[in-house]
Amino acid sequence: MKKIRCNWSEKDDLYRKYHDEEWGKPVYDDATIFEFLLLESFQAGLSWYTILKKRENFKSAFDNYDYKKIAKYQQEKIDDLMTDSGIIRNKLKILATINNAQKFQEVQKEFGTFSKYIWKFVGGKPIINHPKTLQEVPATTEISDLISKDLKKRGFKFLGSTVVYAHMQATGLVNDHLESCFAK
């Protein structure tokens, strides 16, 4: 019998795998949370599918998403990234990623882990929504507005409310699987 999935994920096997194995599943590991922050910030203005197709290239280009290394990137590395056709070559997003890696570590120092910081916005457990259609899934919420505003206050860049809500979905702070979906 065929699995019933959220219909957005039926584009191809890459999307199905992401939907089935990652999307909406709670992530508490700082390294993975940072990976999704990086990917989501590059996704701003683009499709998530574009980013997923380039995910392995991003991983290679950005030192396995190692935020400690990324925080120390200098001009030579920025120049290398700007010539890497495997990623999105947007200088503002590259600079924002370096900045965000630095700010990420500041949050870790303050809260012990970034995970503790981000999960406090949802009371430490996922928000489970019950959408019946994709049209019922919001692009932003009051919580994503609040997180985005707090991140901006802390100096993060390219993490507006829409990007933050997508990050919440990717890391399971919110579960927006459709009621008909097997992964609900």
TrEMBL record:
<dbReference type="Pfam" id="PF03352">
    <property type="entry name" value="Adenine_glyco"/>
</dbReference>
<keyword id="KW-0479">Metal-binding</keyword>
<dbReference type="InterPro" id="IPR011257">
    <property type="entry name" value="DNA_glycosylase"/>
</dbReference>
<keyword id="KW-0862">Zinc</keyword>
<dbReference type="GO" id="GO:0008725">
    <property type="term" value="F:DNA-3-methyladenine glycosylase activity"/>
</dbReference>
<dbReference type="InterPro" id="IPR005019">
    <property type="entry name" value="Adenine_glyco"/>
</dbReference>
<feature type="binding site">
    <location>
        <position position="181"/>
    </location>
    <ligand>
        <name>Zn(2+)</name>
    </ligand>
</feature>
<feature type="binding site">
    <location>
        <position position="177"/>
    </location>
    <ligand>
        <name>Zn(2+)</name>
    </ligand>
</feature>
<feature type="binding site">
    <location>
        <position position="19"/>
    </location>
    <ligand>
        <name>Zn(2+)</name>
    </ligand>
</feature>
<protein>
    <recommendedName>
        <fullName>DNA-3-methyladenine glycosylase I</fullName>
        <ecNumber>3.2.2.20</ecNumber>
    </recommendedName>
</protein>
<keyword id="KW-0227">DNA damage</keyword>
<dbReference type="InterPro" id="IPR052891">
    <property type="entry name" value="DNA-3mA_glycosylase"/>
</dbReference>
<dbReference type="InterPro" id="IPR004597">
    <property type="entry name" value="Tag"/>
</dbReference>
<comment type="function">
    <text>Hydrolysis of the deoxyribose N-glycosidic bond to excise 3-methyladenine from the damaged DNA polymer formed by alkylation lesions.</text>
</comment>
<keyword id="KW-0234">DNA repair</keyword>
<keyword id="KW-0378">Hydrolase</keyword>
<dbReference type="GO" id="GO:0006284">
    <property type="term" value="P:base-excision repair"/>
</dbReference>
<feature type="binding site">
    <location>
        <position position="6"/>
    </location>
    <ligand>
        <name>Zn(2+)</name>
    </ligand>
</feature>
<dbReference type="GO" id="GO:0046872">
    <property type="term" value="F:metal ion binding"/>
</dbReference>
